[in-house]
Write a structure and sequence with these properties.
Layout: H1 6-13, H2 17-25, E1 33-34, E2 40-41, H3 45-58, H4 63-74, H5 80-116, H6 122-130
Antiparallel strand pairs: 1-2
Length: about 140
């Protein structure tokens, strides 16, 4: 029986050994064989899967979404068009999050301007009093 031990895979994939354990528990890695002495043996393909997981995470996919894609692919329930639609949905979600963050930035800029103004709005002055910052 050949394969890599957990420490070897962790080093080759540049992940923590606890991360490997977690991925196993979450179903992101396939069931593993064991050596005669009971050690988990990771096949070469696990390195490719770990690279896929890393790349998917860097694109903003959650481990739940990654597991779902891996499960569907294992059962041949996903094709390239499905994958492209998933990417489109992820892009739209990120655009929405960016839009919300831009609105927050505008609100913060407005708040900052209001705080720096010499003739503060009564609401701003009340907020400063609540925070014991009235000056």
């Amino acid at each position: 029986m050949t394969g890599y031990l957990r420490g070897q895979v962790a080093k080759l994939a540049n992940v923590n050994m606890e991360t490997l354990r977690y991925y196993e528990k979450q179903g992101l890695l396939p069931p593993l064989q064991r050596s005669e002495s009971g050690y988990r043996l990771y096949p070469e393909e696990v390195l490719d899967r770990l690279t896929f997981i890393h790349n998917a995470k860097s694109c903003g996919f959650t481990l739940k979404e990654i597991r779902k894609a891996l499960t569907k692919s294992r059962n041949s329930e996903i094709n390239i068009d499905d994958f492209l639609m998933t990417i489109d949905r992820k892009q739209e979600k990120i655009r929405s999050e960016i839009s919300k963050k831009e609105e927050m930035l505008l609100s913060l800029n407005q708040l900052k301007s209001n705080l720096q103004a010499t003739d503060r709005h009564p609401g701003v002055q009340a907020t400063l009093q609540i925070l014991n910052m009235d000056s």
